[in-house]
Amino acid sequence: MKANFTKMNWLIPVLGIALVATGIIAGATYLGLERKIDSGQAFAATLDRLYQDQQLSVVLRTLHDGDAALAAQRLDILLCENILAVNSEIASADSRQQAYVQDAFVRIAQKRPKNVYTASGPQQLNDDQIEAERILTEACFAIKRTTEALAAAR
Predict the structure, then answer these.
(1) Domain spans of the chain, in order of start
(2) What is the pLDDT of residues 56-73, one digit of tens each?
(3) What stretches of 65-126 show up as alpha helix (H) in DSSP?
(4) Banded model confidence at residue 25, pLDDT cuts 50, 70, 90
């Protein structure tokens, strides 16, 4: 009986130490993966900004070369791509963020020219520009409906 009790005296602390060590190793591995994911997301955001900067550089070059109409069209395409990107990300945001983005879309819609004319006539719009125009129009109507509903409630 004494031998059995002695085996139990060292077995329980050893198992406890092994479990604690396993937990520490698992925690360190998890934190390491979290750091890698965070740095990957930060790097992706940096790459996205660099891509935008490159596109703006091309537009600036076009403008300096004297083709203002083509530069305006490229700027509009960049704006529309950004609108589509923000719109795709906003579905997972909370209501406060959605309201802010919708308000920003309304302000963009008020300032953005509807039809861009070039020397050769109206500009041909691509799918991104058409979709962005639809998103901006929906934002304007949603704000208008909200304003009308608040006025009617008073």
Answers:
(1) 1-66, 67-154
(2) 888 888 888 988 888 888
(3) 68-89, 95-111
(4) very high
CB-based burial, 56-70: b 16+ in 10 Å, e otherwise: eeebeebeeeeeeee
Element (H, E) at 122: strand 121-122
Are 80 and 131 in contact by the 8 Å Cβ rule? The answer is yes
Task: Name residue 117's beta-bridge partners.
Answer: 122
pLDDT tens digits for range 74-127: 888 888 888 888 888 888 888 888 888 888 888 888 888 776 555 555 667 788
**DSSP 8-state class, residue 154:** -
End-to-end CA, the chain: 86
Q: How many CB atoms lie within 10 A of CB 116?
A: 16
